């Protein structure tokens, strides 16, 4: 009986250690300079996967041209730097291994001078404004097949952990608003709502690091305002969309929208269903030397998550003037999720630790 208790205690401690190792992440920091080795401020920084160039995280440089990207899991990455008036820069492959990586300074060069030019500029993915950071989601590659929560996790300063808790610069108690309106929902319910919202419905994210005193105490840690796309077409129109994503698990999102707009009145409705799946496998092997030889702990964890959610929105806007609009908005959200975590640990070797209760 005592041996069984010892094995159970060891397995429990190993499970705690495995969660601690999952939480370990790294950082990448660097410097962006111009041709004269002067730091460039507000340069758009994108962290890309080296394997397929998919977006992992975004940020901007500070007033001295420095940048910092946090919460990076081990892997191979590229850093892309861009700002209007300079040529884009893409770094060599950077390896992150749960440590701090300091890249060499990046030099952005100005374009070739021409007698006549036509300037075309798209909004960068990340914009630094006086009082907030704006993430332009619409018409960017990051909105294809992703959810609002996944886009949020790629935004600068935002961390979404494995339990979908949202923190801003490491602080909890973040206030999430939609089109400037507070949702009055528990944090867990907001995460479920964002997990069921397609990124295609989002125009931009506004991240306010230092909100003013007019906001509730809940927003003292920061505010994330989600600005949804609006249909500006007059008359009656509708849309039907379907998204399918196949990874380890299959996910699909289906939505139907209807919009009736005149110059003064806009009536709109949207129905959305989201079926999603997520899976992760973790293999940990520890070999510990001791006086009698070695002890080996071999653990395999299989984690699965699946869910279904429904989102219904019905609204009415009345334009009093070009700058003043009053409206009513009703929303219904219902979601169900299931989590499965299977852990198996093999303990082998000599001089195994003993526990007593």
Q: In terms of quaternary structure, what is this?
A: single chain
- State the secondary-structure class: mainly beta
Question: Span between N and C termini?
Answer: 12 Å
- Briefly, what CATH class of the largest domain? Alpha Beta
Q: How many domain regions?
A: 3
Total helices: the number is: 3
Count of beta strands = 22
Helix/strand order: HEEEEEEEEEEEHEEEEHEEEEEEE
* General form: globular
Report on the architecture of this protein.
It is a single chain. The chain has 357 residues and is mainly beta. It has three domains: 1-109, Immunoglobulins (Immunoglobulin-like), CATH 2.60.40; 122-228, TonB-dependent receptor, plug domain (Ferric Hydroxamate Uptake Protein, Chain A, domain 1); 230-352, Aspartate Aminotransferase, domain 1, CATH 3.90.1150. The protein is built from three helices and 22 strands. The strands form five sheets. A six-stranded mixed sheet has the order 10-11-16-17-14-15, with no helix packed on it. Strands 2, 3, 5, 6 and 7 form a five-stranded antiparallel sheet that branches. A hairpin with a 5-residue loop joins β12 and β13 (166-168). The longest helix is centred in the first third of the chain and has 22 residues, at 2-23. The model is unreliable at 1-23 (pLDDT under 50).
